[in-house]
Amino acid sequence: MQPNTNEVCQKYLDELAAATPEITTAVVTTSDGFEVAVMQRGGVSHAKLAAMTSAMHALGDAMVGESTLTNCQNVIVEAETGHILMLAVPNVKEGLLLSVIADHQVTIGRLLWASKRCCRHISDELGR
Amino acid sequence: MSETPLLVAAVGLSEPDARLLTATLSTLCIRTDAAWKLARDAPGEILVVDLSHPEGAAAFAQRGISPDKVFIVLGGALPGGAPDPQVLPLATPIQAQDLYGALESAAARLRADDKAGSLPSQPVTTLADALYDMLQQADRMRVMQITDVEEGGTIFVFFPERIFFLEGRLSSVHGTERVCVVEAPRDDDDVAMTARLAMAQPLMRLLVLAGLSNSKGTLLPQLDPAMAYRLNRWPTMEMLGAVPSLLKVSAYLIKRAGTVQEMTARTGLLPEAVADALNACALNGYLETVPRERAVEQSPAQPPVKQAATKAKLGLFQRIRAKLGLATAEPASDG
Amino acid sequence: MAEYKIIITGPMGAGKTTAIEAVSEVPVVSTDVANTAKKDHAKATTTVAMDYGELTLGGGDHLRLYGTPGQQRFEFMWKILAKGALGLIVLMDNARPNAVRDLDIYLDNFAELIADTGVVIGITRMDVSSQPSLEDYHRSLRRRGVVYPIMALDVRKKQEVVILLDTLFSILEAAEA
Question: What ipTM score was computed for the predicted complex, to two decimals?
Fold first, then answer.
C-alpha cells in the first residue's frame, strides 16, 4: 500500500463525517478486511466492522457473479434504526471498501450521495 | 567378540563382486561382534555363489550334501517351490547394503542351527502373546527381537514406529509359533539395524498374518467380554484397511464406552466383527476399560420419538455415500 | 425438499476450497479476494466470507458444502455458517509453523457444533512437511481429553476427500446409535 493511502482516506473520511453528522462510524478497509482509516463516534468495533464489510461485499460480488449482473458496487443494509452502506472505492489498485453506519435521521439517498462522493475523492487522489 | 571366525567362501564371483565381498566382510568385522573371514583354502560355512558361472552352479547343485551351510545366491533363477531355509537370494547388480544384510541373515541362521538343540535361556511364549505383551508398552523407544525357536528366524520390531523386519524364516505365521523375546537397545550407529529399519514394514501386517487383528471373531484372552471399553486414539489408516469392522466400532467408541453386546446391538455388526475390531485396538494400546456403571450412563437408550428422525438421518448418509461413489452394502442400523 | 450442510474449516491455505472443488457437482462459489497480509501467509488470495459447493441427492434434497474463511478475524462467519450443520471437517496445513496449536483454535471455536454433531480432522501438505506427525496431533487431543479421527490427505485427490467425508458420516451415524 502507498505510504499516503491511510492519510488520504482519513482526510476524506473526516470530511464525510463532518458533512454528515448522522454517521456514527465509518471505515475504509482493504478488500480482505483490514482497516485503513477509521472515523468513530460510537462503540462499534471497527476491526470487526472492517472484516464484516469485506465479507458482505465479497458475498455481494459472488451473487452478482451468479446472476446476469456485473460489477458489485454497493451493498446496503436497511435496519429499523438506520443504515449500513458498504461501497467499493473505484479504480484503486489496493481494492478498498468504504463502510458507513448512520442512524435513521439521514435519508438513504443523502447518505449514499455523500458516501459515493467520499469514494470518488479517494479514487481521484489514489486511483490508477 | 566371537573367537571362531565365520568362514565365507566365494564361488564363481566376478572380480568386482569378489572385491565387494572382501570389503563387506571387513565392515562386518568392525561392526559386529563376530570375526568374518574369506575362506580361500578351507570350505566356507557361508557360500556366496554366482549361478551364472559353472562353478557357482555346480556348488549350488550340491548343497544337499552340506545341509549345515548357507548359500547366498545371485545371477540366476532359483528352483520353484517352498523357500529353502538354506538359501538366501541376492539381487544383481549387488548392492553393498543387500550383501551386508544377506551375510548377517546367513550368520543368524547358522547361530539358530547351533542353538536348535537347546532351549534359549529367555522364557518361551507364543508369537501372538509376545506381540500382544509388547504392544502394551508400545510408546517406548526400543527394539524387540522375537526369535522362532524352531526355525531360528528373527522378527525385529521397532517402537514407537510399530514396524517390523523379518530375518530368516519362521515355522509359520499363525501366532502359535514358539518364540523367545529379547529387548535390544536402539543404536543409531548400528548399520545392520539401520538397514533393517529402512526395509521394515508396518507392524499391522504381521498382526494380520498372526491372526490377531482378523482373529476370526474370538476376543483376545486378555479382553473381558463383560467389560465396557472406550477408544483413546483413532486407529491408523493401515488398521482401518486391515479390519473391515474397525471404522464402525471406532466411531461408536469415541462417543461413548460400550461392551461387546452393546456394540453389537447398536452398530448392527456381528459379535465376531466387533471382537476383531476390539482386538485390533487392544493390540495397539488404543483401548481403555471403563467402569461398568459409567458405561451404562454413557449409553442411554433412544426415546421412541427420536428413532424415526434417526432412521431418516441414517438413510441420508447412505444416499450421500451413494452419490460419492462409496459402497453402501451395509444396511442402516436400526439401533 | 431438505437441505443439509457440512462445514469445512481450518487456517488459510489448508485446502478448504480445493477440498470442496474436489467433490462439488457445481463450480464452487468463492469469495476470495486479494491477500494484503503476505507476511502472515504467502497466498495471493484469501476467503473472506465462504466457499460454497453442493451435491444433489435426488428427491430435491441437497448436501451443501461450506468452506469458512480461515483467518480468525472472520470468526463471526464461523458462527453463522455453523448453524444447523450436520458435522464439521477441520483441515490443518502441516507446513504452518504452529500447526498443532492452530488446531486448538478451531476445536475451541466450533466446540458447540462438535459436541452436538461430530468432527473429522484432515492434515494436508504432509508431503511438504512431515512434522508435526499425526501422533503429535493425537497427543494434543489426548491432552484435551478427546478422541477424533485424524488422517493425512491430499485434498487435490477426490478419493481422499471422499474417505474423509465417509469417516465423518461414520462418526455422525455412530452418534445416532
Answer: 0.90
